[in-house]
Specification:
The chain is α/β, with parallel strands linked by helices. The chain has one domain: Rossmann fold (3-Layer(aba) Sandwich), CATH 3.40.50.720. It has eight helices and seven strands, in the order βαβαβαβαβααβααβ. Strand 2, helix 2 and strand 3 form a beta-alpha-beta unit. Helix 4 packs parallel to helix 6. The longest helix is centred in the middle third of the chain and has 29 residues.
């Protein structure tokens, strides 16, 4: 896999299980990683983990991803300190709790779209000028198989993830002339802290049985999909969605 030395990467929501896995892998390839999270302690913990034993270079970024002005200001500070951001992983997100339509109020609906869709939009807006100026960039958005599966619950979550698919494909076309790729990854169910809290151990085991692999992927295996999009060999790959898991039946993704 290509070396990322000299590049600056921003990973949103990197204080969690998947985000921190992405951060460690990208730092290990030589990039300076800006670890974003709304939780300062979580962001700092990941930074310290990367710095321990000279495993890479990293710094924290703390802000609310739904606040466009705050995101723009923090990105500007990071660019001043480290240089233009050429890798963006939009990973920040929350669970939809498998809510049915009757249980989704306006506030919950708005929060779902604010974090997933507006958050990704604000982050992209904040870094795209720098990517264009240097003539390269890799953007990877995080979606879900639920954007396509027609799952019976979590319509607000499924809708938000579907919106990111549309955003990904539109921006892939818009940014292609500038040497910038925009792709998306659908991790599926992973044993992250957020998913474990929602499903419990029995729920995780049941989900594993729904996959042809008969097991859940590790965070590092999901990260391998992200790293594919960042590789020099994938320079022509854009506007694509990579589903990391294959269900036995499409409706149980």
């Amino acid at each position: 896999m290509s070396d990322l030395g000299g590049q600056i990467a921003l990973i949103t929501g990197a204080g969690g299980t998947l985000g921190s896995s992405h951060a460690r892998a990208i730092a290990a390839k030589g990039a300076h990683v800006i670890v974003h999270d709304i939780d300062e302690g979580a962001a700092q913990s990941v930074v310290e983990n990367i710095l321990e034993g000279a495993q890479g270079s990293a710094s924290p970024m703390v802000c609310d991803i739904t606040n466009g002005s705050a995101v723009k200001a923090e990105v500007s500070k990071a660019v001043n300190d480290h240089g233009e951001i050429t890798i963006l992983i939009n990973n920040a997100g929350i669970t939809g709790n498998n809510a049915l339509l009757k249980d989704i109020d306006e506030a919950f609906f708005d929060r779902m779209f604010d974090i997933h869709v507006k958050g990704a939009f604000f982050a992209i807006q904040s870094v795209i000028g720098g990517m264009k100026s240097v003539g390269r960039g890799r953007i990877v958005n995080t979606i879900s198989g639920r954007a396509h599966s027609g799952a019976v619950s979590g319509s607000h979550y499924n809708g938000a993830k579907g919106a990111i698919v549309g955003l990904t494909r539109a921006l892939a076309t818009e940014f292609a002339p500038f040497g910038i790729t925009v792709n998306a990854i659908a991790p599926g169910v992973t044993p992250s802290g957020m998913t474990r809290a929602r499903l419990g151990e029995d729920g995780l085991a049941a989900r594993a049985k729904q996959l042809v692999s008969d097991r859940l992927p590790t965070p590092e295996e999901i990260t391998s999909g992200v790293m594919f999009f960042l590789a020099e060999e994938a320079a022509i790959v854009t506007g694509r969605v990579l589903n990391m898991q294959q269900p036995r039946k499409a409706e149980v993704v």
